Amino acid sequence: MLTLYDHGNSVCCQKVRITLRAKGLEWEAIGVDLFRSEQYDPKYLKLNPKGVVPTLVYNDTPVIESTLICEFLDETFPDPPLIPKDPAERARMRLWSKFVDEGLFEGVVEISFSAMFRERMKNLTPDLRERRFENIGDPRRRDRYTSTYELGVNSPFVLHAVYAYEKAFKFMEETLGERGPWLLGKSPTLADINMMPFVARLSYLELLGAWTNARPRINEWWARTQEWPSFKRGLSDLVTESEFADMRTHGPSIRAEIDALVAGLQKN
After folding, report:
1. CB atoms closer than 10 angstroms to residue 250
2. How is 183-240 classified by DSSP, letter by letter?
3. How far apart are CA 134 and CA 53, in angstroms?
């Protein structure tokens, strides 16, 4: 029995759902409303002490951290395989996990926050806004959110985000040229699944072109991804119209600033 504690438009949950679909698995979904701080409910914290989503429960055992969940699923349900058997190829696959976990995750949060959630926070009462910041818990994450709330795209954390994507996309374009059509060759693996939600978010915010206008192989990969059934059923089909509209409305409002930041990095 698989149970996934989930939040619809969370990139980390999307990564796990794509993996579940690629494996042909069924699961019970339990929603965790992040905007109501349900991730800090004591019952949920017993499953996931970090107070984040997703959490997978398999045979009464909770598994946390999306990268670990995806690898757990591949090891527990080995067909079709999403992790290469060859150790060198497996290491190459995990490079993409490192890009995500050490830069792109925080990066996509900062970009999304500066485009969309910052405006929502502005509309809260000062008391409720302060309570939201207090509920974040992790001091590093609270500092990032506070900076992005106060400074928007001018926050240094947004520049860090833009740099993380630039570094990943430069390597991605080179890798697809050498190995393609997927990151490790002829079939999608966890390397591709790791990247899919993070590319999707930029695309839905209408910001992706800032990095990929001169990177045709990434654009070809993204077009291929959008046609992959596991991506559709695990991510794009589950994004609501209101979520799409929100991203399309707010993303372009920061496009000029993002373009300038990317252009500055590409000159160096």
Report:
1. 19
2. TTBSS--HHHHHHHHHHHHHHHTT-THHHHTT-HHHHHHHHHHHH-HHHHHHTGGGS-
3. 18
DSSP secondary structure string, 240-268? -HHHHHHHHHHGGGGHHHHHHHHHHHHH-
Whats the size of the chain, residue-wise?
268
Structure tokens at 203: 């695309």
C-alpha atoms less than 13 angstroms from C-alpha of 208 in its C-beta half-sphere? 22
Of 73, 64, 53, which is closest to residue 13 (Cα–Cα)?
53
Domains of the chain: 2-76 (3.40.30.10), 87-267 (1.20.1050.10)
The pair of three-digit structure tokens given for residue 230, joined into one six-digit string: 């596991």
For residues 189 and 187, what is the distance between their CA atoms, to the nearest angstrom? 6
Q: Which residue has the tokens 């990969």?
A: 221
What pTM, to 2 d.p., does this model score? Answer: 0.93
One digit per residue, the tens of pLDDT, for the chain of length 268 reads: 899 999 989 999 999 999 999 999 999 999 999 878 899 899 999 999 999 999 999 999 999 999 999 999 999 999 999 999 999 999 999 999 999 999 999 999 999 989 887 777 666 667 666 666 666 667 787 788 788 888 889 999 999 999 999 999 999 999 999 999 999 999 999 999 999 999 999 999 999 999 999 999 999 999 999 999 999 999 999 999 999 999 999 999 999 999 999 999 998 7
Residue 13 burial (CB < 10 Å; 0-12/13-18/19+)? buried
Say how far apart CA 70 and CA 20 lie, in whole Å: 8
